[in-house]
Model the fold of this input.
Amino acid sequence: MAILYNEGTTLAERVDACLDDEFAHKAVERAQDVFYDKRNAVIGELPNWEDMRHAARAIRNRVNNNLDYYVAEFARNATAAGAHVHFAPKAEDALCEILDVFEEAHASTCVKSKSMMSEEIGMNEVLEEAGMEVVETDCAEAILQTAKDHPSHIVVPALHLDREAIARMFHDELGYAGSSVPEDITRFLRVHLREKFLAAEVGVRGCNFAVASTGSTTLVTNEGNGRMVDTLPKTQIVLVGIDRIVPDLESLDLMTSLLVRSAVGTKLTSYFTVDCGPAHEGEGDGATDVHIIMIDNGRSDILGSEFSAIERCIRCGACLNICPVYRHITGHGYGSIYPGPMGIVMTSCLEGYDKVDKLPYACSLCSACTSNCPMDIPLHDLIRQHRVNMVAQGYAGPIERRAFVTAGKVLSSRPLYDVATKVAARGMKPLAHNGDSLGPATAWIPVLGAWTRNRDFNRLADERFRDWFKKHEKEEGSAPEKGKDAR
Done:
């Protein structure tokens, strides 16, 4: 799998690096504010928004609970429409199928539209190692490919890069001689990519939704490159996750309405494409050889588990656009192609706890992501469940385990609690910042330092409430006798 990148780094190391990137930090803040405000505006125009969410949740649950039936129905109808359908249980199987298509087509060049699934299976790297030319044609993905970088957002993947750096990079790598004005860079890319489109032998794209009743695949995009990818090359490869299926066109209409509003805060997207098989005889546009690769890659293992709700995700990015943690650590802090709350759940499920470090702890459990999710996925509950599982399976560090075992004993014993609170109040006083709280100066303290490194921790008061109460109780006389009216 290629879900994780920067392996060998810890979550803390990645977060520290991202916090130092002031531009990325501010860019995420601006994007969140814009997307969130626009989303709320278009949702506010729909009095039945909650009804739409509940209907979509029911549809996705029905498909996931009967996934074998809907996968078979989609494959049957796609085959009847003239497409070749391949099944890939793992990422390696999908890559083998892709290489076989290139070999059968005697092809060595391809153009791609944006596809998270291709990122997930590491397709570009494998094809390039095999000697193929792979060209990303989405503007942001073209930038990332040139920069040899990774997405920081599932909808706006190059969010973390500034235009000055992009202009310099295109100058150094592609011979760009223009300014850093976005329109100039876009015009340059359009000219640069046009010849790539015309020369490409294979087109590769992802799929937002696959329609079981018609065998259709859909593509939702705000750039025209998607349609050029799926019409100009004569051989077409469509990567479809088995969790992308909807039952029929009526369900597709609902899902698309939710997706576009939640992702970018608009009623419609610029381009919405529905493909059903190869071009028919006499049609001027479209591929004549279409290969649809149905990819599992761990998804069927999630179904029926305590995390099965994440399979409803439609990759809209709404949870990223409200998450306070993502706002500060940006996409690269997660070290996964799937950042944010949905990324924490998906990455931990697909990669396993031994590879994700403390990723499930990159969350405040504020539940804003759950409220914002159009599929009504309880994201914060799923993240919390990952934490519970990690502790139960022994992934907590030895110091942390001892600290919480000790805390449990103290909090469950009245005598120990009395002693501990008295000692802690005295011990915190000389360590306190300005006399009120523990600050960065106490970052060296195990466990506690993870909090005080970036936040203030109020110290215990010199006098405990129970001691104050006892003192005033004595001053005002004895307490009322049991059983008597204390009024």
Summary: The chain has three domains: 1-65+312-396, 68-297, 398-475. Residues 68-297 form a domain with the Rossmann fold fold (CATH 3.40.50.10420). The first helix runs from residue 11 to 19. DSSP finds 21 helices and twelve strands in the chain.
